[in-house]
């Protein structure tokens, strides 16, 4: 019976390995026969013990082993003759073992189990100190241990779902010939002039360096500089004297060298005397010309404006990257660092935009059903009974499309029929989350695209409609989270967008490059943004956004 | 003859459209017949005019149209009867047109051309003002126009190659069951303690807000506060008096309300009196407890340490994201913001690491040959004659693997044979770029993996070999760029890594979470980092790294 080593060997019944000599537990357990057909094969596996127990008076142990490749555990049996059992059974222990796959006795849940013949490595755990005991832990508790929480069932399932949605995103846009563009993280543009931004700077650390240096090496005094000046004068006079006395070339050269040394010393002292502790100032303000980028720089809040430069050159593009908001929001829906997907399409209008958004969201849902059903079943069992049905519904149902004006009418009718909202309903308001969720969850019971919003509540770059009151904007609302996507056709007419910027009280200068796209070879185009963590909340039914990103950042917290 | 609209209609001879009613020029020109088989079809296309010229005494115009989907232009013919020609022929003009595909007369280069029947939209260009004239422009010149440069042949070809390499990266790791993990951009850990980091802060903007507020609304004086205190005392006495006089409940309530108002006013004034201009200080240092994350925060220099927490839970993972260095390097090889790919593999050692790195680089090269050959031909013609052969060689040749000690021997032998290096060769040195390129370009003429470096020149987390002198590190060297990948097996032994951190003079406290991974359930693991822009330089033969990222950031420069 051959050892099933997997490195790039596709002739084994297992998938290609991950450059490791062990078999993924998923490749055993995810087979239609639950792995039973592999009985008789010898394999290496590695993973972390979920639970372990000694049996038969300590003659053998059962381990539930998980390697993160799937939610299911492999049942592993170790005889006391093979290895000391006490260490192996502790939750969190890492084991790398080799053994024989066997069909377990009738009446057990497993279809296959591993009987260990050799233990290659053990990474032990002291259960008295390990922060993740066997008991059920709350997601909130786990946030204090971001370096261990991927070892839990929930956070590892979220990681697999997040990974699947990311690859589905790339696959969708690549299938439709969009180019993935890396927009900048550090930016000197402020998209929309809205939202608090994080500043990126080296001024503080530079100032700290100067301060340390000045403590170690105090700056020269006035007297030091005067003395250095006097020395330069003296050495200069010496040179002049030697020259007028027609001294030898050697003597003059030596004297000039001394003069130069004195000059260098003076200029070094003068340079150092300019060193001042603190952040450099000019005219009573911070002197950003001395910052790393020679101007004030921030973390991006959106790649949209920048990616438009590529849409206006290579047609269909998308970004997928981190974005930042320095808002002091302590809600379950906000992060200071989160990921956004932002496609931008040239030669396309609002209808194309809605078609793209709908196709993309459906694709993501279908992808999870096709590729992550075991993780989705875990979510359905533990967090949100309806989450799989919701994916199925969204993947297969046409999204409702209604104008903002129609949406307001429907909400007003609901109010007349005694529906209570906390926020007043009238034309011109920004729809509140309660309105959005009423439309998608109660009224239509499916995703709803609301389009053509009042211009007063939307950004300057959205295309003004012919009614002069609304703009070609659209939001995709879905059950569970409300707004999942916001997008618009962009204003491609130079005169109109210039007027809109000024109307909104924004300065033109920072947008000159953006206006250039309308001045030279302007094109009809549109795009949208999807909050990636919102999509994960929608898919999994998890409530707090801090649990669907590996390393959450929010006010007061940035672990690791 | 039907209009070939393409939205999701796969029954047409074209690929699925990009949510637009136009056909991608690539889908016409990249057919084996060069598009000739489509003659007779009516299509819509959109793009930007590369060159245009009026012919036949102004009776018609030829336009070379490019939409960014491929390097080739579609030849478009417009009759003067269809649209005014003067505007159409300017370089940079955007046109969205409909017409008939035709086989051009014998003897022309094109296999198909479009005869326009309808012009849907024109985005004009004033050639006197457009910054990108028809003439050949240097890449350096184009850096001043990052918002227009993707309209050039070179930068759009780079965008397509960059996109292809990004998707190939995801496809490779997904094929091998790695999970894509989003490591944080804002971090409070300093990987390796090396490298200058950018600080992320809201302290400066908060201080500016306070300053503005204090100018608008000066802080209360001592006298204001004394007066407010006196008022509180007075109101308090009034309440006491009413109570002792057994006044009516109404009178007492009114009096208490006045007292509370006075107290609120006092606490508001006291709060405002604490407002101080400038960045908050405590004990002579900046008080970071008042910063957004309640501690000092930076932009990440690598996601490795953080992604290890996922490798030590879900086995095989990778990151692909932006990383940052605040180094004042003005070279053609350094950026302040660049993208890195960092896989991390559990249950794997240095050999597995080298296998993975070699397979990955080969996969990238083969992917470009399979998916971007037209862009590669453009690069071969304009930048680097050998770039296609280089891809073929790397995709098909086994990488040489030599130890650092062997590499030093080979370099010393070369020195004996009169090879001149600027940097001295002896055991213990960090290999310089000239040494690396000599090994890969001259000596082996293929990629070389150098492994097992002296511990003194490598990071603390690399696994100490049994010789106690070297660590299980490896670098992949390739022709043209030298070091493309750096990686290592990680030290999984708690006692050894703790000793290494202390040996290097680093504090333990910031690494406690990293040490925890070795304390509890430790696992043999390895990983590497690939500089994504270096890979593009290697593939394209372009010399300056600023030209292979859409929005380059370097000292003094962060446009848009």
From TrEMBL, chains A, B:
Reactions the enzyme catalyzes: tRNA(Asn) + L-asparagine + ATP = L-asparaginyl-tRNA(Asn) + AMP + diphosphate + H(+)
SUPFAM superfamilies given in the database record: Class II aaRS and biotin synthetases (SSF55681), Nucleic acid-binding proteins (SSF50249)
EC annotation from Swiss-Prot or TrEMBL: 6.1.1.22
Alphabetical keyword list: Aminoacyl-tRNA synthetase, ATP-binding, Ligase, Nucleotide-binding, Protein biosynthesis
Domain WHEP-TRS: 224-280
InterPro entries linked to this entry: Aa-tRNA-synt_II, aa-tRNA-synth_II, aa-tRNA-synth_II/BPL/LPL, Asn-tRNA-ligase, Asp/Asn-tRNA-synth_IIb, NA-bd_OB-fold, NA-bd_OB_tRNA, WHEP-TRS_dom
Boundaries of every Aminoacyl-transfer RNA synthetases class-II family profile domain copy: 317-550
A Pfam family it matches: tRNA_anti-codon
MF terms in GO: asparagine-tRNA ligase activity; ATP binding; nucleic acid binding
Any single biological process term in GO: asparaginyl-tRNA aminoacylation
Keyword Protein biosynthesis appears in the UniProt entry: yes
CDD domains, per database record: AsxRS_core, EcAsnRS_like_N
Listed PROSITE patterns: AA_TRNA_LIGASE_II, WHEP_TRS_2
Domain of life of the source: Eukaryota
Broad EC category: ligase
GO cellular component: mitochondrion
Record-stated family: Belongs to the class-II aminoacyl-tRNA synthetase family.
Name of the protein: asparagine--tRNA ligase
């Amino acid at each position: 019976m051959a050892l099933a080593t997997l490195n790039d060997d596709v002739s084994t019944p297992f998938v290609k390995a991950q450059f490791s000599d062990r078999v993924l537990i998923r490749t055993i357990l995810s087979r239609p026969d639950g792995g039973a057909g592999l009985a008789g094969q010898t394999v290496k596996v590695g993973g972390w013990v979920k639970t372990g127990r000694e049996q038969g008076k300590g003659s053998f142990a059962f381990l539930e082993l998980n390697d993160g490749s799937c939610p299911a555990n492999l049942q592993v049996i170790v005889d006391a003759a093979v290895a000391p059992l006490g260490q192996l059974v502790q939750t969190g222990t890492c084991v790398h073992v080799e053994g024989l796959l066997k069909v377990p006795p009738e009446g057990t849940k497993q279809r296959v189990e591993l009987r260990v013949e050799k233990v290659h490595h053990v990474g032990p755990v002291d259960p008295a100190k390990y922060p993740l005991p066997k008991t059920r832990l709350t997601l909130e508790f786990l946030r204090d241990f971001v370096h261990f929480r991927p070892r839990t069932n929930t956070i590892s399932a979220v990681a697999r779902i997040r990974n699947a949605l990311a690859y589905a995103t790339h696959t969708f846009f690549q299938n439709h010939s969009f180019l993935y563009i890396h927009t900048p993280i550090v930016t000197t543009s402020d998209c929309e002039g809205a939202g608090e931004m994080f500043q990126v700077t080296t001024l503080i650390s530079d100032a700290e360096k100067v301060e340390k240096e000045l403590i170690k090496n105090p700056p020269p005094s006035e007297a030091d500089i005067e003395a250095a000046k006097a020395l330069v004068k003296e050495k200069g006079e010496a040179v002049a004297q030697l020259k007028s006395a027609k001294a030898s070339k050697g003597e003059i050269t030596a004297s000039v060298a001394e003069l130069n040394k004195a000059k260098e010393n003076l200029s070094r002292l003068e340079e150092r005397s300019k060193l001042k502790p603190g952040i450099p100032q000019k005219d009573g303000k911070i002197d950003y010309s001395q910052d790393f980028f020679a101007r004030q720089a921030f973390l991006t809040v959106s790649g949209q404006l920048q990616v438009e430069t590529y849409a206006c050159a290579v047609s269909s593009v998308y970004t997928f990257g981190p974005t930042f908001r320095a808002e002091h929001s302590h809600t379950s829906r906000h992060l200071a660092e989160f990921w956004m997907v932002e496609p931008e399409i040239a030669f396309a209008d609002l209808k194309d935009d809605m078609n793209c958004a709908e196709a993309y969201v459906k694709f993501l849902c279908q992808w999870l059903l096709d590729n992550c059903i075991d993780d989705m079943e875990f979510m359905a069992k533990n967090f949100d009974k309806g989450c799989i049905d919701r994916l199925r519904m969204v993947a297969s149902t046409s999204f409702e499309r209604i104008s903002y004006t129609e949406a307001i009418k429907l909400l007003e009718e609901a109010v007349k029929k005694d529906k209570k909202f906390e926020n007043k309903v009238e034309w011109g308001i920004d729809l509140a989350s309660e309105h959005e969720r009423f439309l998608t969850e109660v009224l239509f019971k499916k995703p709803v695209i609301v389009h053509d919003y009042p211009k007063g509540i939307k950004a300057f770059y959205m295309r003004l409609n012919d009614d002069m009151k609304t703009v070609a904007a659209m939001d995709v609302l879905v059950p569970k989270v409300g707004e999942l996507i916001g997008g618009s056709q962009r204003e491609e007419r130079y005169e109109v967008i210039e007027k809109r910027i000024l109307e909104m009280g924004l300065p033109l200068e920072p947008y000159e490059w953006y206006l250039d796209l309308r001045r030279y070879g302007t094109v009809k185009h549109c795009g949208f943004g999807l909050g990636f963590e919102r999509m994960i909340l929608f898919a999994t039914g998890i409530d707090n956004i801090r649990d669907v990103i590996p390393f959450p950042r929010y006010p007061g917290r940035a672990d690791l």
